[in-house]
């Protein structure tokens, strides 16, 4: 084995790991099934927000190379799997990419290798799915080779916490596997946290995401009745968060997006239901509340137009910010898509602006970003702020709008400006 690390799946999770490992002095290879991704990286082009083209080119100059050839996996002392785990049609996780990646690793598995799964999944995946596939060739996990789960906690766009200074949770199929994986991560990240086994590490990730999902649902539900009660929930949260213990602030919004929050808790509820036969009620309730926020904000938009004696049908609605998070280009599961869908169903003409998105794909159609934001503001019957990118001068935008609906609670309220 001639390289320290092979990363399988070179996306939002895999590439930051490549970056940290190369900068820790390791020799690193990347394996991905997408030829476009591989060619781009080898040519110094980044396809994720957290790494620039210059940084990717620098990785290549330091010896990093990506490939679509799985035989590279036989050369690596450590193999980390960072492939996607999307939702399947039935609501459970689609482990197709994980199975495919593990199959490739199994075909090249060497004694002494350390294999780690980072993809988010339900508890039991490492030992029930990954381990038997890897052991099919005769080598035993925990002794002949090592196997562990280490959940990815990357927060794209977070300028304070990246792969290096976010503690890494590690749980192996045996104490030896835990130590082997922890020793590897100890070379790459500042802090390693060991769990009893793989299931605890898998569940820790789902606890973190479910906690966010449920708390966002809590404030989303409160936003609905606070509006009816004429209580400013944003002011309420600002007051509550002054408590120095026992409270963490979460904020309402037009829905939840990204890969983690809307999807991962489903793995857990699906798994609990499939194995134990009863529902994980908190997750299912949170799912119901968060998933109906897009239609709720569209109803509020309709009420605002109604106050002006306007119908939604025929109105021009300008959406500001269509990504799922501020200051990044990632649009996965963005609630802006169902918001646009509901607006169009009611007959509105939907236009959009986002500093990070030039062309926006929604429900099969492609929309170009408005060419001139000032002109689009002047022409819109209603402007809806869906994502608060730092490039936006909110007060100026709100002040220039006929009606401004702020779903992020950042604009000062006025007769023409309403907050969620
Ligand atoms: N993006 C995030 O913010 C985030 C945060 C925490 C955890 N995660 C988890 O990490 C995992 C990876 O997510 P991501 O955001 O990096 O996905 P991504 O889509 O950005 O990247 C995944 C990459 O894997 C490649 N791939 C797919 N199947 C493959 C295979 N069989 N062999 C090799 N490569 C393959 C794809 O071509 C793609 O380049 C998921 O389980 C996700 O839930 C993501």
Overview of this structure, please?
The chain has 2 domains: 192 residues, Rossmann fold; 129 residues, Rossmann fold (3-Layer(aba) Sandwich). The chain is 40% helix and 15% strand. It contains 14 helices and 15 strands. Strand 5, helix 5 and strand 6 form a beta-alpha-beta unit. Helix 4 runs parallel beside helix 5. The longest helix has 32 residues. The protein starts with a strand and ends with a strand. The mean pLDDT is 95. This is Nucleotide sugar dehydrogenase. It comes from Georgenia satyanarayanai.
Short structural description:
InterPro entries: 6-PGluconate_DH-like_C_sf, NAD(P)-bd_dom_sf, UDP-Glc/GDP-Man, UDP-Glc/GDP-Man_DH_C, UDP-Glc/GDP-Man_DH_C_sf, UDP-Glc/GDP-Man_DH_dimer, UDP-Glc/GDP-Man_DH_N, UDP_ManNAc/GlcNAc_DH. Belongs to the UDP-glucose/GDP-mannose dehydrogenase family. The chain has helices at residues 14-23, 35-42, 53-61, 96-108, 125-135, 175-186, 198-229, 233-240, 264-276, 281-291, 293-307, 336-345, 373-379, 394-400, and strands spanning 3-8, 28-31, 65-67, 76-81, 114-117, 146-149, 168-172, 192-194, 316-320, 349-353, 359-362, 365-368, 382-385, 404-406, 417-419.
